Amino acid sequence: MNQIDVLALSGSLRADSHNTALLHAARTLHSGGLAIDIDHDLGRLPLYNQDLDTGAPPLPVAELRARVAAADALLIATPEHNASVPAALKNAIDWVSTAPEGLLRGKPVAIAGASPGPFGSVRAQLALRQILASVGAEVLVKPEVTVFHCDTRFARDDRRLTDPYTADLLRELLDALARKAHRHAGRPYTASRSFQPEGR
User: Fold this and answer.
1) Per-residue pLDDT at 12 exceeds 50
2) Domains along the chain?
3) What is the mean pLDDT of residues 11-40?
4) What are the residues facing 84 on neighbouring strands?
5) Torsion angle, CA of 15/36/191/129, rounded to 10 degrees?
6) Any idea which of 28-32, 66-70, 131-135 has the lowest mean pLDDT?
7) Is the pLDDT higher at 1 or at 123?
8) Are 101 and 68 in contact (CB under 8 A)?
9) What's the start-to-end Cα distance of the chain, in Å?
10) Is the Cα dihedral 92, 97, 101, 104 positive or negative?
């Protein structure tokens, strides 16, 4: 089975972000065959400005575009800001979507989100789906990973995911992303069920 390279983006810039912690959990919960690389640099991107969107864009933009181009799929975890996606995440998508190579067209994308509130970032995820659909990304429909009351689902000291239900949903999402990415690449996919997630 060929490896699928996944670039993971957190919509939160906060050091102790539950959404970033969700991406770290993903690195240990998948069924094998995925290499998940977490990007920590969305805060370095300048605000999108068409005057800067030239053949030589700002270095952080060029680096992000290169990482998206090299990835077989994307995994995005988003909090909810005012019933929508955070500005940093929308800004990153704006920069990537305007690359002349059309980097997001047809790119398999899985989304998830965590929120301390009762809705688990469901409105942010809806907005994110609309944004990604408008630029031609292939967004997974199911399962929906909306982690509500997230402060009760992660360890307080190290932000380790402790909720088994959330872990199962995240594992299902990663398996679905692997299947879509393999189909996109024209390769068969068989999950390695001998993989045992850490701490389970």
Assistant:
1) yes
2) 4-185 (3.40.50.360)
3) 92
4) 81
5) 70
6) 28-32
7) 123
8) no
9) 24
10) positive
Query: What would the pLDDT profile of 145-193 be if each residue is shown by its tens digit?
Result: 999 999 898 998 888 999 999 999 999 999 999 999 999 877 554 444 3
* Residue carrying structure tokens 């045992």: 196
Backbone angles phi, psi at 57, to 5 degrees: -70, 170
Cβ atoms within 10 Å, residue 157: 6
| Distances, alpha carbon 116 to alpha carbons 24, 77, 89, 112, 121, in Å | 18, 14, 19, 14, 9
**Helix-helix angle 164-185:18-29, to 10 degrees:** 70
Rounded to an integer, what distance in angstroms lies between the CA atom of residue 10 and that of residue 76? Answer: 6
What size, in residues, is the chain?
Answer: 200
Look-up: residue for tokens 């689902």?
Answer: 153
SS3 130: helix
Q: Rounded to whole angstroms, how far apart are CA atoms 37 and 49?
A: 27
- Say how far apart CA 55 and CA 190 lie, in whole Å: 40
Phi first, then psi, for residue 4 (nearest 5°) are -105, 125
Model confidence pLDDT, tens digit, residues 82-116: 999 999 999 999 999 999 999 999 999 999 999 88
